[in-house]
Design goal:
Layout (H helix, E strand, L loop, with lengths): L7 H26 L9 H20 L7 H20 L3
Length: about 90
């Protein structure tokens, strides 16, 4: 709804806040109830998640007006497609 109303700062805050909430609260509660094993196969996914979040913050905070340009969105879309292809092919 925030993106629809042209409030990009609020939209990005909602996305980042939701991710932080899910990781820390939901995963934390789940781990207290039943310990969650960390599989070595998940290392690639964790690395991709951390790298994409870091890249997003660099793009947002170094660009003009703190927004993502169309070509930067294309880079993210290309990286996502490469990630999905890598998962399907079984590279990692």
């Amino acid at each position: 709804m925030a993106a629809y109303k042209k409030n990009s700062d609020i939209a990005i805050g909602n996305i980042v806040g939701s991710n932080i909430f899910n990781v820390f609260l939901i995963l934390g509660i789940s781990s207290v109830i039943n310990p969650v094993p960390l599989m070595p196969e998940a290392n690639f996914d964790l690395l991709v998640h951390i790298a994409s979040a870091f890249l997003l913050f660099i793009i947002i905070f170094t660009g003009k007006k703190h927004q993502m340009d169309r070509w930067e969105g294309g880079v993210f879309l290309s990286l996502y497609i490469a990630y999905v292809v890598a998962l399907i092919v079984g590279v990692f």
